[in-house]
Every structure is written in C-alpha cells, then in structure tokens.
Amino acid sequence: MVRSRAAPATPALDPGRLLTRLMARGHTLTELEGLLHLSPGYLSKLRHERARPSAQLLALLALLESNPATTMGALRAVGRRARGAAGATPVTVTGGGAALPALLALVPELERRGVPWALTGAVALEAHGLPRETRDVDLYVDDRHRAVLNVFRDAGLGIAHFSDELAAAYPHGNGEDDRIDLIFPRMEPAATMLHRAVRRTLRGVSVPVLPALALTAIKLMSARAKEHADALRLLDAGLTTRRALRAELARLAKGDERGDRWARRHFDPVSALKRLEAAR
Hints:
By secondary structure, the protein is an alpha/beta fold. It folds into 2 domains: 15-84; 96-278, Beta Polymerase, domain 2. The chain has helices at residues 15-24, 29-36, 42-47, 55-66, 68-86, 99-112, 121-127, 149-154, 190-193, 212-221, 225-236, 242-253, 261-266, 269-278, and strands at residues 89-91, 117-120, 137-141, 158-161, 166-170, 180-183, 198-202, 205-209. The strands form 2 sheets. The chain has a 5-stranded mixed sheet. A 3-stranded mixed sheet has the order 1-7-8, with helices on one face. Helix 1 runs parallel beside helix 4 (55-66) and helix 4 packs across helix 5 (68-86). The longest helix is centred in the first third of the chain and has 19 residues, at 68-86. Residues 6-10 and 81-86 have low confidence and may be disordered.
C-alpha cells in the first residue's frame, strides 16, 4: 500500500515582516493606508502586532511584496476609477488669482502620472463652499513624488525652493502673490488624508481636495489666527463636528512617528485642543 505524502504546510504570512520589507523598498505606511483605504495608523499597529489583519489584507500585502509595481499601479487605477464613478461636486471658486488656472491646466498630466496630491489652504476652503479671498493656491503632494516639480517646470512655470518641505511654482508674467505652493508633508493628518481626498469640480476640472476634517484640524493646529478663524467657519458650517475634531486632535497629540519636529512646532495639536475648548 502506497501512502501519499501530505502537502507541506504553507508558512503563515508575517504582516510585520511584510511591511518592513515593503518599507525597505521605498513604500510608506501612509501611502499604503491611503491605497488600501485603512484608518490612519492602522498599519503601524499591524507592524508592531497590535492589530489582527484580515485574510484579504494579508493577500494584498503579499501581492505588494512579490510584484510591487504592478500591484501599486492596479490599486491606483482602481482608486481613480472609483473617484470618477463617484463624480465630483461642482463648486464656484473666485480666488486663486493666476495660479488656479495654471494649476487646472496641469491636472490631466498630474492624473496621468498618478501623483497623489490634494488642494489645501484658502482654495480648499472655497472648494468646501466657504469663500475666502486669496491669490495663491496651496497643494499637499505625497513626499515620495517630489519629481512633480518637473511637471510645473516643463509647463514654463518658475520654481523656487524655500525649504525641504516647501516649493513654489510661479505662472509666467504674474506677481509674486500669484503662485502655487507645493507642500510635501511628513505630518498627520495631511500625509494620510491627501490619499483620501474628496473630488470637487473647479471651473470644469475635477480636482482632489483635502477632506473637511483634516483641513479643519490643520487650520486649528496652525499658529496663525486667520487659520483658526477658518477652522471655526468649517465647524459652524457643519462640514465636520466638534466631536470628530476633538478625537482627531487627541489622536495627533499622542505623537506621530511619521511626523517631524519642525512640523509640530508650527502645527501643534495640543494647542489646537485648547483653542477648540476655548471656542465653545
């Protein structure tokens, strides 16, 4: 009698090791959370064995490790199709000076290259339905896509570098105030939430906009009184709630391993919590 040998057991996937190898290949937990539609900080907990993954998530992580380029491309394509199917809410925007039309002309190229970005600042406030006068346009761009500056340079815009986190693109023939500020954030909630942007149609062009909760938190964390007033306008308009904002700021106040000291000196969640309580 011939006995068949049992098939060797498939070794269990170790999510912590998978994530470590993916990070060694240049992927960030922030980017992966955005592409996989996971809560901010979830993959960090998973990496340190403080969360239990689903079988589907483990399979996706394994695909990302074995064939990262193809899998990342597929996930981004699915995200773009989902955003297109959901449509984009049309809004009227009067600010942005000469910078906004210059940006809108480049949106197709940014989309073609799969660059993760989102409007923030005063134009984002307008995109959420709250008018605010401005001549510049602020963008958050994924920190791993700094080559996006070449898109603006190739289109004839002047480029200036102010710091490791900030650059500006100037439309030709316009004043210093008409500029596109490109911010490469390494702090939360911007680093994660730019991957979960909402879509708005500005002057016929669908663009990603920072979600209202993230925009409110960032403005209230700022050191500038004008930004605090914007945050309260977002709250008063019902675009987010005090409860959600309080929970988000409390989460940020516990510390962020992806952030940096410079960012936290300029965007302080502890001070923002105090401002929120004082504005009751």
